Amino acid sequence: MNDTNQFPGSDGGVVDSEGSPMTPVTAIAMLLGVVVVIGAFFMLAYGLGIGETWPAFIFLMYWAGIQHMDFSELRDTVCGSLFGVLLVYLAAGFPLWLGAVPGGAAFLGLSLAVVYCLLMGHFKPIINMMAMLFLTVGTIPAMTQGFVLLEVLKGLALGIFYFSGLFWGMRILGRLRESEARQEAG
Predict the structure, then answer these.
(1) What Rg, from alpha-carbon coordinates, does the chain have?
(2) pLDDT per residue over 86-109, tens digit each?
(3) Cα 185 to the chain's mean position, in Å?
C-alpha cells in the first residue's frame, strides 16, 4: 500500500482510500500539480544540460504507476532501471563492436539468458519488469540511434533523485499534517 491514499479504481479512474471516486475539481487540482512538477523537472534538466529525459519518465511511470511510489520497491526499481539501460547499451553496442550478425547473435543469447532468469526469479533486484520495460522501450530503433550511455544515465539519475525525493518530501509533509491534526483533535 502507498502513502498517497489514492488507488486505481475498477474503471481505471483514481479512488481514495474509502473507495470514493475522485471529483472533477480534485482531478483538475492534481492535474495542475502535475503540470508544475513536470515543468519544474524540465527546467531543472535544461538547467543541468540534460537532454535525455525519457529515462526519467520510464522510471516515473513504472515506480509511480505500477509500484504506487512504494519506497520498499525503490531499490529494485532503480537496479532494474540501471540493468535495463545496460542492456540497451549492449543492444546498440554489440553489432558495432562484433559486427551485425555476430553482435546480433550475442545480444540474442544474452537476451535469452536474461529472460530465463526473469522467468525463474533469479537476480530479482536487477532482472525484473523495470529492466524489461527499459529494454523494450530502449531497443526501439529511434532510441538506439545516437544512444549515449552517459547522457541516458544522467537523465535516469535526475529522474530517480527528483521524483523519489519529491514523493519522499510529500510523504513527510503528509505525516506531519496527520500528526498535527491528531494533536489538535486530542
Answers:
(1) 20
(2) 999 999 999 999 999 999 999 999
(3) 38
Neighbour-count burial of 60, counting CB atoms closer than 10 A to its CB (0-12 exposed, 13-18 middle, 19+ buried):
buried
| Site of grid cell 547522457 | 151
The set of cell numbers assigned to 11 is 474503471
* Nearby residues of 100 by Cβ (< 8 Å), 6 or more positions away: none
Q: How far is Cα 68 from Cα 70, in angstroms, rounded to an integer?
A: 5
* Bridge partner residues of 7 (DSSP): 15
User: Which three cell numbers, joined as nine digits, stand for 93?
Assistant: 553496442
Closest alpha carbon to 61 in 49, 52, 53 = 53
Decide: pTM greater than 0.90. Answer: no
CA distance 60 to 172: 19
Cell for 72? 520498499
> Comparing C-alpha atoms, which of 186, 145, 150, 167 is closest to residue 63?
167
Strands (E) across 48-149 are located at: none
Phi first, then psi, for residue 16 (nearest 5°) are -85, -175
* pLDDT tens digit sequence for 46-84: 999 999 999 999 999 999 999 999 999 999 999 999 999
